[in-house]
Amino acid sequence: MKQIIVISGKGGTGKTVITAAFAALAKNACLADCDVDAADLHLLLEPTIKERHEFRSGKTAVIDETKCTRCGKCIEICRFEAISKDFIIDPTSCEGCDFCSLVCPEEAITMQENISGEWFISETRFGPLVHAKLGIAEENSGKLVSLVRKKAKELAEARNCEWIVVDGAPGIGCPVIASLSGIDCALVVTEPTLSGLHDADRVIGVAKHFRILTKLIVNKYDLNIDMTGKIERYCKDNNIDLVGKIPFDESVVRAMVEGKTIIEYPDGKVKEEVINIWNRIEEIKQKSC
Ligand code: SF4
Ligand code: SF4
Questions:
Q1: Pocket test for ligand 1, best of 62, 65, 69 (most atoms within 8 A of CB)
Q2: Residues having CB within 6 Å of any atom of ligand 1
Q3: What average pLDDT score do residues 220-236 get?
Q4: Any domain includes 180
Q5: 268 domain residue, yes or no
């Protein structure tokens, strides 16, 4: 089984459109959406949810007012100013450090686990999908990403899948690092702009740090041929395999509006190039990466 991930230096580069196309092309794949802060792979894959689970992460202090004598010690020591003068704890300010529960003479404060989001196992027309949703303003997306990866691997093993196709988080933060473990090949998607190249360079640096085979895709390459030339030179200088250049085409938007992947859409130049890229990636099945 090989695991590939599609990532980008920032959001909006076409990463999810490309992941969904790979999902359509891979036969016998398990899919994982690790963009838990803004999951949108499900919009194209229209999954039927089979399992739904709470994601618990971190703790918040809670005061039992029947035990509280209003001595004020907890307010004094909370350096996050999470406790109001009425002895109510603001869960968005509480960092879960547990200090207040230790100093409370009445043992009136307990730490309660937060429900930070949900994760799902679903069926799609291209195979099973593990996906998740992090609650608004919740942290620990790295932990949720690790959970999604773990569950996708278990599912892929149970079903003898040949591929795990992962939609990664954008950027270079904790969720991306969590989504890279055990990956055989990372595909970085960029657009032909200076900031796109800068962002791609940063995420390539992260993938290389973890010694992951990394390839680059330029999306909408024909919108700025000069910049695409610069990206080609960058790839040559840094020994990065530029695995494909996808042209701009309105068929991508039309397919999205119809809830289809570009592969399910009638012929188009984008579809052709994505199929070529997939055929090049398929070669990694023969190699030890
Ligand atoms: S330290 Fe305990 S008893 Fe004192 S105000 Fe806080 S919760 Fe109440
Ligand atoms: S757990 Fe820490 S941050 Fe939360 S209210 Fe208590 S002292 Fe403040």
A1: 69
A2: 63, 68-74, 87, 104, 106, 108-109
A3: 97
A4: yes
A5: yes
- Measured from the Cα of 71, ligand 1's closest atom is 4
User: What CATH number is attached to the domain comprising 63?
Assistant: 3.30.70.20
Atom 3 of ligand 1, residue of closest alpha carbon = 68
Among candidate residues 251, 239, 175, the one with its CA nearest the CA of residue 213: 239
Domain identity same for 151 and 242: yes
Q: Give residue 140 CA to ligand 2 midpoint distance, Å.
A: 18
Are 63 and 36 within one domain?
no
Return the ligand 2 atom nearest residue 83 CA: 5
- The answer, yes or no, to whether residue 235 has pLDDT greater than 60, is yes
Question: What order of strands is seen across the sheet that includes strand 48-63?
Answer: 48-63, 109-124, 127-134, 29-33, 163-170, 2-8, 185-190, 213-219, 241-246
In a domain, 120, yes or no: no
CA distance 120 to 49: 7
The total domain count for the chain is: 2
Q: Do 144 and 276 reside in the same domain of the chain?
A: yes
Q: What is the mean pLDDT of residues 231-256?
A: 94
Domain extent, residue 94, equals 56-115
How many Cβ atoms sit within 10 Å of the Cβ of residue 67?
Answer: 12
Average per-residue pLDDT for the chain: 92
Q: Residue 221 to residues 14, 27, 171, 249: CA-CA distances in angstroms?
A: 12, 28, 20, 11
- What pTM value is reported for the model? 0.87
